From TrEMBL:
Highest taxon of source: Eukaryota
Active-site residues (renumbered): H528
A single BP term in Gene Ontology: signal transduction
Protein name per Swiss-Prot or TrEMBL: PDEase domain-containing protein
Annotated AMP binding sites: H528, S529, R530, V531, H532, D570, D709, Q761
Signal peptide positions (record): none
Coiled-coil portions: 250-302
PROSITE patterns referenced in this protein's UniProt entry, alphabetically: PDEASE_I_2
Ranges for region Disordered: 663-689
Keyword Repressor: no
Amino acid sequence: MNIPCWVHCPKAGEPFCNVLWANKAAVTRFGRLLTSEERKALVSEYPQAAVEVCTAVMTKLYNHVVVNGENMSHRIDPKRSLKQMFTCIRPEETAANLSDGPFSVKIDGQPVRAVLSQLEDTFEDVNPDSIRASLMQKQSPIHSYLFDSQGRLLLANLKAVNKWHAKGVTDMTNFRLQDLLQKDGHEQPEAAASAIKAIFSDKRPNFRMILPDRTSTGSRKSVLYELWPATDAAAYQPAMLVNTLNVSQQKELEAQLEDAKEHLFRQNTELQAFNAQLQTHQEKLQAQQMALRAQLKQALQLARTPKTAVDTVTLADKAVSLLDSIIEGAMPELQDIMDIRNAMIHAVDFRQPLNLGDQLLKGAGLSTDVGQAMMDLLQGDQHSSAKRQAKILSARSNLGPKGLQPTRRTLSSFDNSRRLSRDVSVRFCGGSGEFALPQEQSSGSEESPHLVHTSIVPVTERLLQEASTSWTFDIFSLAASTNNMPMSTLAFYLIKGSGLVESLSISEHRLATFLCRVEAGYVDNPYHSRVHAAGVLQMMHLLMRNGLVQTGVLDSITELACYMAACCHDHGHLGLTNDFLIKSHHNLALTYNDISPLENFHAASSFQVLHSEPETNFTETISQELQSILRASFVELILSTDMKKHFSTISRFQAVPRCPAASRSPVVSGSHPPMPSKKAASNPPEDHFPRLTPEQKLLIIQVALKASDLGHLAASRQVHQQWTSHLTEEFFQQGDRERSLGMKISPLMDRNEKTGMIKSQVGFFEIVALPLLRSYVEVIPDAQPMLDGMLNNYEFWRSLEKT
């Protein structure tokens, strides 16, 4: 070969290497090899920096080629890089490409790993693409050869040369095609002749053959020989390019690849199954986290309310708790059993906390007047509403097996399009509260001259829409916008928007007339006024649309009863407490035998308005069975607002099932289902809470109305403080009246003490309001925004009390 080649042994950390052998082309061109003494002498001649550079180069060459067994190609300047190997480097030498590859030799019978270097000249006028192609050919991992038409080797790439050097063929000058084509280690001249004929004589574009052979370890293999016609660029003669490929290795690799694909497929299938399990587990964890967050939120809310010294657990609750512990297998202390037994013997009302009066006056840490006021407010009576509840159940049973269909609507299904239209000329009288619709007037009648025509203006319409959705609505703004008729305006808007007018075939004219007459019956008190009734109505509407529908509590007639009770719950209120009426022997107290005189009066007077004349009786089109349920539910709702029954109601409410997380999803919106009849035969939709009994459903809406009656405690700070001022003034007015009658002034109602009921705010929140709403939210979680608003106002009063 005319290409300079040599074998040398580089060592890491040394500047020069030991050259073992050089071919004739190298010696002719660069002179003989340096002796070891001559190489050592060169070290003293080199500058230290040059020695360090040479050391780094030799170390890199050693690690890359000798250690890693990889080929390496780079450009060198023979005048500098070969000076430490050969004796005669000519000055005209120019840059050249040096290819290094791993090479094994034996020295004194011992194998030594060395480097085979091959130098190739480059010239300025050579096409760069040719240089790159040459380098690619040398660095190719495929064994490539170039033969002439006689089968003589012209060129072999570095990979091929290294292969034959490893077999002991160091001189490939006389290497021929038949030496390459071997079968089981033997030359194949016939195969070589066939290949030459196919490429040079037959002019075939390519030629392939597979010959069996053996590896260096003796195992069998199949070698694929691929031949293409080529041109010897140096001699401008036809040539033949030959590539060899171990087909056995390829097949083995393909098999390994298929095995790897199959393995990956199985792993992917297992991973998908694992991911599905993981997703299911994550969903369970998320559900658990949501439940824990809800519990934590409830615990934080409980922490925000300090425990008072008042034990509000009723005797009935304590007895039930004791029985539950026995059912669960626990053995209660004998003293606990005897305490409950003795308490039951002396108790008047099992649904009232034990010794509530003594607790409020002595053990609650309250001032005497605050304790007395709380006792007057909460000390219950002994009367029951069992007969009315039995009447409700009896009337429902008369409807047949289907009963009443539950309401299936959420707040999002409330139809704002069913509102007081500007096309329906609504005419209110600011003084009398009369109401009429033109289409309802009899022919030939003249419009009453005192009726004032009032269309629903955009501001009022916007306020009505806001009232149907906002937990912090300013009811005073609606009163100002409606000429002080907020209750009738809002009630008509909400009832019509709920779809009840259509589902119950209610006359809009009669409904509007009834609402105006009821509103006119409200006395202009500072607190218990038509504005207060509108505020309670607005909050009751939100509670119905946020939870009571989802739990299946409401049907059409019960929903109407809730709207009516909210509108009428303080109808004709005198601005005086029940205790005042009883102590002063007021006619209402005498009429109702001192039993919730105000609440009985509100319910009775409202139904008197309903049945006073045909123009107000909007329920006339409803069946007698449903009218019976409506009246009984209406009375029960209003009577439950008497604070004397507070603890009895809350105690019974503890037995209502709490809402599971899975049952809090919103229901599909829609209008009221048609009212059932005795002949109805289709299956009614199931309640979201099938465990709720009719008694429990009634109890839920009673607590909802009680919470709505305290709704200003959850209002915005400004609205809440405005209501507080109104209530304080109403209390002071009763105190003034008690003073004028020579009666003992009730606690917190003495105007001379200035603070009045304000100093009882924290106690009322802690003992009454927050426990009530917290219990309600446990059953109806969607009412949480109301509890949040109440807690904010409670924190405000606590901060004032601390200062």
